[in-house]
Amino acid sequence: MTNSNVSIEDVPINRFHQLLTVRSGGGSFVDGYVLSIVGVAMAQMSVGLGLTSFWQGMIAASALIGIFFGGFCGGWLTDRFGRRRVFFVGPTLFILASLAQLWVESAVALFLLRFSIGIAVGIEYPVATSLLVEFLPKKSRGPRLATLTVLWFAGAATAYMIGEAILHHGGDDAWRLVMASAAVVGALLFALRLGTPESPRWLLSKGRKQEAEQVIAQVYGVGFSLANLPEELKTRRLSFLSLLHSGYGKRMLFVTMFWTCSVIPVFAVYAFAPKVLGALNLKGEWASIGSVAITSLFVVGCIIATRLLNTLGRRTTLLHSFFWSGLALLGLGLFSGASEPVILLLFGAYALLIGGAQVLQLVYPNELFPTEIRAGAVGVGTSLSRVGAAVGTWLVPIGLDTYGIGATMYAAAAVTFVGLAFSYLLAPETRSLNLQQAASLA
Questions:
Q1: Which of 307, 91, 47 is nearest to 187 (CA)?
Q2: What is 15-439's CATH superfamily?
Q3: Which of 124, 160, 354, 366 is least enclosed by beta carbons within 10 angstroms?
Q4: Is the per-residue pLDDT at 198 higher than 60?
């Protein structure tokens, strides 16, 4: 029995899709964990290693700098050598670099290890998302890619819970155990990914038709073949440089700018949450309540946005997210000296409303570029967005000490409104298109 008239983008979600979502989403969970754990350990770590404000900022930004290089390399490697091979590079680096933090003795050494972890994170974005999107049905594509962002925040929340528990019971050097705890999560991710097949779309782009046929039959059933993927047979040959021309340069500009403007305030908040909340007069019990509430609202905001992608649409969700979250940051600047409930309300509103821009970071670049350059586009977007995020994160402690919390919040609001402007001018709508249509320039 054959299914020659059924596109694989129209089949129902099956067990393989569910497992692949977990395998790819596990990378986002680990990313959120390793990038956020430094904020938990920063205070005790600064005392233990005698870190200055400069090195606090550099270590907080080091992983973001690593992501810059990892994104470029990961995107190129994934498009060149395949999704499956590169799928295990990130978890391996997570394990080795995280364990090494147990014995670190200097700011420079810690910077280099965090930089290596950043490279692993940068590799994760293009390989995990491109592999997932190339198997998913059309209706599930946006929500499932968006779920990876939800898992990022879940990983961040887990980092705060586990990190705080270790700090309270681990003594003066507990920060070492806090930082090294990511190795356990990395090991679980490595084991989870064993047995993952290669993307048939990538195999087909390399002319490996027989292998692509085998994977399609394995995943979708013996009645499915390359005939259920006819649009890929017509794909023109593109190179990594096509991201800068052939009509895709404009799309790359959009992805880079909206991604950058959506991550700068978020990474700054996560890296220096206790310091930012303290500057907003949230201390002691209020600070603890605030950290938990804000982290939870980030997750809730992403979940709500995920549900809106197929109803409200990608473009509308993005514009509303930037506009309303920007107003919340503006409010934090205007009322930076307000009472604790007002600060929590505004900060919570930002965390809830930025969810739309966060979940679309992995949706848009995977939809707007074809198979040959898809991972490369995600990698470039990851890398360039982290340049701004790294600079912003490094400047947070300096900005707070020099200009105060009000000016810092105004700057965050300005960045968010820049993202709104670029999205208004360049964001397309792709919710009703299959993967080939969304990536086409026609």
A1: 91
A2: MFS general substrate transporter like domains (1.20.1250.20)
A3: 160
A4: yes
Reading the block at residue 414, the tokens are 């300005």
Residue 26 · residue 90 · CB < 8 Å: no
Q: What is the pTM of this model?
A: 0.79
Which pair of structure tokens corresponds to residue 154? Answer: 């879940």
- Assess contact for 152 and 29: CB atoms under 8 A: yes
Q: How far is CA 373 from CA 14, 131, 237, 436, in A?
A: 27, 13, 10, 13
**Mean pLDDT across 306-329:** 93
CB 159 within 8 A of CB 36: yes
> What span, in angstroms and rounded, lies between the C-alpha atoms of 37 and 397?
17
Closest by Cα among 390, 362, 357 to 378: 362
- Buried-exposed string 301-328: b where 16+ CB fall within 10 A, e elsewhere: bbbebbebbbeebbbbbbbbbbbbbbbb
252 CB burial (10 A radius; 0-12, 13-18, 19+)? buried
Locate 255 and state its tokens: 């992805």
CB atoms within 10 A of CB 89: 19
Contacts 24+ apart (CB under 8 A), 103-111: 103/176, 104/49, 104/176, 105/49, 106/49, 107/49, 107/51, 107/55, 107/58, 107/59, 110/45, 110/49, 110/59, 110/62, 111/55, 111/58, 111/59, 111/62
Looking up tokens 């900060």 gives 347
Q: How far is CA 179 from CA 2, 55, 192, 363, in A?
A: 52, 17, 22, 30
pLDDT tens for each residue of 252-306:
899 999 999 998 888 766 555 566 666 666 666 666 666 667 777 888 998 999 8
> What tokens appear for 90 in the block?
């990130």
Domain ranges of the chain: 15-439
Q: Which two tokens stand for residue 4?
A: 């020659």
pLDDT in tens, 325-369: 999 999 988 887 777 778 778 888 998 999 999 989 888 988 888
The predicted-structure confidence for 141-172, as pLDDT tens digits, reads as follows 888 888 888 888 788 888 888 988 898 887 77
